[in-house]
Write a structure and sequence with these properties.
Elements lengths: L4 E4 L2 E2 L2 E2 L1 H17 L3 E7 L3 H6 L6 E6 L8 H15 L3 E5 L2 H13 L4 E11 L2 E8 L4 E5 L7 E5 L17 E5 L27 E5 L9 H11 L2 E4 L1 H5 L20 E5 L5 H4 L7 E6 L6 H4 L2 E4 L2 H15 L2
Parallel strand pairs: 1-4, 1-6, 4-5, 5-11, 6-10, 7-10, 12-13, 12-14, 14-15, 15-16
Antiparallel strand pairs: 2-3, 7-8, 8-9
Helix pairs in contact: 3-4, 5-9
Amino acid sequence: MSNGILVFIEHREGGINKTSFEALAAAQQLGAALGRQVTAVTLGPDATRAQDAAGYSVSKVVSAENAKLDVYTPDAYADAMEQVVRAVAPQFVLMPHTYLVRDYAPKLAARFGKGLISDCVRARAENGSVVFTRRIFQGKIDADVVAQGEPPVFATFQSGAYRPDQAERGAGAPVESMPVEVGEVRMRPEPPFQEVKGAVDLSKAEVIIAVGRGIKSQENLALAERLAEALGGEIAASRPICDAGWLPIDRQIGSSGQTVAPKLYVALGISGAIQHLVGMKNASTIVAVNKDAEAPIFDIADYGIVGDLFEVVPVLTDEIKKLKG
């Protein structure tokens, strides 16, 4: 009998990677819908990393332990995770869609004769099955995927598909230490992947002010920058702005840019093409300013202002500054 859902908790720079909380939120929601328990798993030389996950609502945290797991290698992680999956016997193995997971997860799934349902944006229980949704053709089409055959099913979730604050905290889950055997590690680890020097990781921003074609010229970016400064946020853009060279590519939001889920997303002069929406639709609060009342961005906005951004934004900035004193 399958034992529910196993969720992989990735650590980075001494703490849990933010996207792991998103995968945990997906696992908890799916577990509630299916009536299945959620088990978390951490990998490391000892149980230290497991303690970080024990404060969340899971049945237990399995701490897979071996000295070779102190730093990431695909060989060691695949060996350790294989042993955990066989011991826990879950129906689903859910993971964040990070560079690290993308490296070792296909190897792991192959050891069970399974494929990997990657980069999912949601999962739902339907007629006794679980339907995973992936975006294809640069976000133009949603593809529903249902795994066939016996468990386990391996899936990863796109950054921003769920919000980290959706991960439900608990009273303290028990930690189960599990020594694992790790075979030959055939490669020497390199430093973890980093974006180019000076690049901005917008996935960490709580407030984002994004501009689109409606900003009209590069000189007008100063309007958005003043609003961002007033709100303590970061500047971002839709693809045409970055293609024009008005902002660097690391500021681009959408299917060919970053995927974000900030607490506040302000869209200025952005029409709301699907390629952009897939990168920001999971923001907690979306505010849109556009003079076209029929712009698709208003379909997902929590608050919409139909008006000229050159009139609206300066007033908005001034009022925010007044509120902040």
